[in-house]
Amino acid sequence: MDSQEIQEFLPLVKGVAKRYSGGDKHLQEDLEQEGFLGILDAQERFDASKRVKFSTYAFFWVKKRILAYLGKEFELQTSDLQERDLAQEVSQNKAEMAEAEDEQGFQLCVPQDMPKAEEAVLRLFFEQKLPLDKIALRLNLSREKVRQLKFKALRRLKAKAIDR
């Protein structure tokens, strides 16, 4: 299926994504991407001998992909509650960390084995107080990837604090 054929299904994908996005522009974009993956799934599985229009068949796969994505997002939201608890704990300890800072500053609080991407996310989030979407733009990552990196970094910091 070439890009022109995929463009024919743009209204279908946008319509289904809009129905489930709840007005959230970023979520709608993510859902549209999933919807186009549904179009590709439909193309792979479509059997013209069944006498069903492709658009009808594609609708099923678009909706299936979008709902699966939303299910994953729901699971991630429950992990967001844990992330907020970790972020609150880090914020509470921030005053203590400020006392321990020297010329290296934030570096003292970051484990040496922390991946650079996680460290960059923490620096931008806590030092520069940037929201996740701005961090994503700056690091050329998706917002979801930045959220995951932040969560991993906070877990790593908590584990180090427990070890002490």
- Considering DSSP H and I runs of 4 or more, what fraction of the residues is helical? over 70%
Tell me how many strands there are: 0
What do the pLDDT scores average to? 79
Termini separation = 57 Å
Largest sheet: none
If helices are DSSP runs of H or I spanning 4 or more residues, what is the number of helices?
8
Low-confidence residue ranges: 99-108
Shape: elongated
Cα gyration radius (Å): 21 Å
Instruction: Write down the secondary-structure element order.
Output: HHHHHHHH
Percentage of β-strand residues? under 5%
Structural class: mainly alpha
Descriptive notes:
The chain is 76% helix and 0% strand. The termini are far apart. The chain is built from 8 helices and no strands. The chain has helices at 3-7, 10-21, 25-45, 54-92, 94-100, 116-127, 132-139, 143-163. It has 164 residues and is mainly α.
Q: Which properties best describe this structure?
A:
single chain; 164 residues; mainly alpha; 8 helices; 76% helix; 0% strand; elongated
Write the layout of secondary structure elements.
Layout: H1 3-7, H2 10-21, H3 25-45, H4 54-92, H5 94-100, H6 116-127, H7 132-139, H8 143-163
Helix pairs in contact: 2-3, 2-4, 3-4, 4-8, 6-8, 7-8
